[in-house]
Amino acid sequence: MESLHARYPFLAAAREAVSEADVDLAALAEGGPVVERALDRVRLAIEEGGVGDPASDRVELLSYPVARVLVSLVDEPGLVARYARAEADTARERFVADIETDDDLRSVTRARITLDALLAEFDLDGRVTAAEAAGTPRGSGSAGSPRSAPVRVAVGAYLRLTEGRSGPQWRLATRSVADGDVTVAREELYDLLGEAVRERVEADLPLSVPEGIADALDDAVADLRNRLDDLDHDWDIDAVDPDLFPPCIEALLDRVRADDSLPEHSRFTLVSFLATAGMDTGEIVSRLAAGDGVDPDRLETRIAHLREEGEDAAYPPPSCETMVAYGDCVNTDDLCERVAHPLAYYERRLAGEKPG
Among 60, 78, 61, 80, which Cα is nearest to 70's? Predict the structure, then answer.
């Protein structure tokens, strides 16, 4: 099994590799590293909006179809969309890193996907061309170089891939359209490819799962349902008051102000907390983008995903237990000992409870 297939298990070639391996899914479901990684994929999708770091090639590749089975068995509204978005966001981070890495810095020990390969995977190779190729037949200009150049996307493909995107910047009326093509920046092309991944991951879900496999995964399904129940809490939060934020969130904000680049999980926690607390998107961007070196447009897109076009965050920050595991639970006070979630701390502070 190839490392490229493990990193991008939604590829057609990855599916073929699983099929050729002739793996007994019923036997896999009995437990072991594959099920553990599959459970981790869905758990992280629920709690953090990603699927985590890859395991060994075999475990990573096989965990993907098992994760799809778990999502199908949980059968909770919104989980399919949440899981597909998490897989797509993780894939986007990986393929951008692959594409943008300079040739002389590429590791010879790990296969990397190319932009042209991604376009071909989603039948976009004839529908995406370099912007400099305007006036030439579609398909005659390579979209793969230079990496910073804008590209043209055929209108039909653009409309399909922006159907699930929010924000006025994606409306066709606001774009430059010529000769049946829409001009997009390279970062926007990556967003569109992320949408293509999301569509493929979400396709055919939920699956029809044989009873024997479902029975073997009962414990994993129960774990995921419990985690979803924990996130369904109706937080009584009606104000944004940074003076009442829990110590862990204050510490993360201090690190941003000190120009400390946060790990991805810490940045997710901070953005999700601020979004759930009701902070305006513009203020979140102004607080985080400058200090943490994050692209503002990319951050706005992430916030939109977290909120799923609603007022409250669809992905609350992780629990106190997870914050401890990450090393982000710091400067605890007496109130911290009485709550199990950063939002519960903030909720109590807004209600007038004191930390001491």
Answer: 80
Q: How many CA atoms lie within 13 A of 130 on its CB side?
A: 14
Supply the DSSP string of 302-330, one letter for each residue: HHHHHHTTSSS-SSPPPPHHHHHHHT---
* Cβ atoms of residues 310 and 303 within 8 Å: no
pTM (predicted TM-score): 0.72
- Four-residue CA torsion sign, 277, 283, 288, 291: negative
Angle between helices 264-276 and 342-350 in degrees, nearest 10: 30
**Structure token digits, residue 112:** 């990397």
- State the helix-helix crossing angle for 247-257 and 342-350, rounded to 10 degrees: 100
Instruction: Output 332-339 pairs: Cβ under 8 A, ≥24 positions apart.
Output: 332/247, 333/247, 336/246, 336/247
User: What one-letter code names the amino acid at 102?
Assistant: D
What is the Cα–Cα distance from 277 to 339, expressed in whole angstroms? 17
pLDDT per 10-residue tile (average), the chain, 356 residues: 91 93 86 94 87 91 96 88 92 93 59 93 92 50 66 95 82 92 94 95 93 94 82 75 94 89 84 88 82 69 65 69 86 90 91 87
Which structure tokens are listed for 93? 């981070």
φ/ψ of residue 79, rounded to 5: -70, -40
The distance of Cα 197 from the centroid of its chain, to the nearest Å, equals 11
Phi, psi (deg, nearest 5) at residue 128: -130, 125
- Is the backbone peptide bond immediately before 316 cis, with ω within 30 degrees of 0? no
